[in-house]
Amino acid sequence: MKKTKINGVELTYRDEGSGKPVVFLHAFPLNQTMWDQQLAILASGYRVVTFDWRGFGDSEGSSTASTMPIFADDLAGLLDYLEIKQATICGLSMGGYAAFAFHRKYANRASALILCDTRATADTDEGKQGRHQMADLARSKGASAIADSMIPRVLGETTLQSNPAVAKRVRTMIEATNPEAIAQASIGMAQRSDSTDMLLLIACPTLIIVGEEDKLTPISDAEKMHQAIVSSRLEVIRQTGHLSNLEQPATFNRVISDFLAQL
């Protein structure tokens, strides 16, 4: 792991392999190690970058809400530091929200998009309320309470019933996260803009991935994005929930490898 200061905050990152750059944006409330199985496979043929959002993993936190535009600026700043002009941007869940914000501000820097288990729409009023309740829970009860709440929702039924190692790994990542970072990002997601209208403007090659058992951003959300993004393809991964890259890594890696090979 390496560190550098971006926009006044020290971010931890990995930069491995060579070739066309692929940058992975991690989900809430995890960290960049969720991409270990993708890094191990893809670094043999691509320049792979992963990093921890501000406040997550080993990155430094900040006192302000972690909004998606701030995340987009942090990503742009890291690309500048690494002298990467354009890259394929792969974001899962919150990482997908940040990818939309990045494309809105820096469209010319995304050579391709991989949108995994995410949605373009903003939160409903009920969804926003839930985000603020999660922030309150993180601050009052800590990261373990967040893990208890989230694991049954982020993992598919197949994984919950047959692969306890994945649940354990997810719990470890969540419990290692600073509760204030969880709160700030939860509030930041509640504040995010609706990206539906922007979908029609996405011209770069786009891969949309969704887990068949995703409870949080179901197949219907992925289909709407696929219908709106002209240059997109949709892949549904069976027997997986919201964290498709962790639950079915072999299938996930095959799907993104096939997509990257065609760019």
Observed structural traits:
263 residues; alpha/beta; eight-stranded mixed β-sheet; 11 helices; 8 strands; globular
Structural account:
The radius of gyration is 17 Å and the shape is globular. It has an 8-stranded mixed β-sheet, sandwiched between helices. The model has no long low-confidence stretch (mean pLDDT 96). The two termini are 28 Å apart. 48% of the residues are buried. The protein has helices spanning 36-42, 68-81, 94-106, 125-141, 143-154, 157-162, 164-175, 179-190, 219-228, 244-247, 249-261, and strands spanning 2-6, 9-16, 21-25, 47-51, 87-92, 110-116, 206-211, 232-237. The longest helix is centred in the middle third of the chain and has 17 residues, at 125-141. A hairpin with a 2-residue loop joins strand 1 and strand 2. It is an alpha/beta fold and 263 residues long. It is built from 11 helices and 8 strands. The chain is 46% helix and 18% strand. Helix 1 (36-42) crosses helix 11 and helix 2 packs across helix 3.
- What proportion of the residues is helical, as a percent range? 40-55%
State the low-pLDDT regions, or none.
none
Main-sheet strand order equals 1-2-4-3-5-6-7-8
The share of residues in extended strands comes to 15-25%
Number of strands: 8
SSE class? alpha/beta
Cα-based radius of gyration, to the nearest Å = 17 Å
Largest sheet: 8 strands, mixed
Average pLDDT works out at 96
Determine the N-to-C terminus distance. Answer: 28 Å
Order of helices and strands: EEEHEHEHEHHHHHEHEHH
